[in-house]
Specification:
The chain has seven helices and six strands. With 190 residues, the chain is of the alpha/beta class.
């Protein structure tokens, strides 16, 4: 088993929570894991990126080489494009379709959609809308994780168990909201 995952977005969107959940699931599965994080200029609003490497064999570097990522999971569509050089030729991009416009020269979203339309393995999902429609407005990141679940190499039960562990101190209502969000993401991918 091997999965090289790039998680990216903007500070405050829950990228590092996704990394924690995937990492927890991998550790419980007895897999090797390495993670490297890059935080932008501020905790909220700056670029956040994490390299997450999982394998059944020892991992020698925590950084994913160019052209080797199996999946890019992005909370922000422009941020996913920033890491395209890292994506393997059969890799997947699972991204929110909702821009987080935090710079004055943010490109027109139609231009971004045009970029994505030329790629073969892309899932664009309006996770904000799905979160609100399903009564889990603070769990859009977990909806995105659900959409990516078939591309990260860990079983759904393992991810659900990791969600229970990661959110255990926040109470049963938070756990259930995140499990629901995972389900919403998984069933909204074609």
């Amino acid at each position: 088993m091997k999965a090289d995952i790039i998680l990216c977005g903007v500070g405050g969107q829950g990228i590092l929570t996704i990394a924690t959940i995937i990492g927890e699931a991998a550790i419980k599965e007895g897999l090797y894991i390495k993670q490297a994080e890059v935080h932008g200029m501020s905790q909220r609003g700056g670029d956040v990126q994490s390299n997450l490497r999982i394998s059944s064999l020892p991992i020698h570097s925590d950084l994913i080489p160019l052209g080797h990522a199996d999946v890019i999971i992005a909370m922000e569509p422009m941020e996913a494009l920033r890491y395209l050089p890292y994506l393997g030729k059969d890799g997947w991009i699972i991204t929110s379709s909702t821009p987080f416009v935090n710079i004055p020269n943010y490109p027109d979203f139609e231009l971004l959609k045009s970029e994505y339309s030329r790629m073969k393995n892309v899932v664009l999902l309006d996770i904000e809308k799905l979160a609100n429609e399903n009564g889990v407005p603070r769990s859009s990141n977990i909806i995105l994780l659900g959409a990516a679940i078939n591309h990260i190499g860990l079983g759904r039960e393992k991810i659900e168990t990791a969600i229970r562990t990661v959110f255990s101190r926040k109470g049963e209502a938070v756990i259930e909201a995140n499990l629901k969000a995972l389900e919403v993401g998984a069933k909204n991918v074609i």
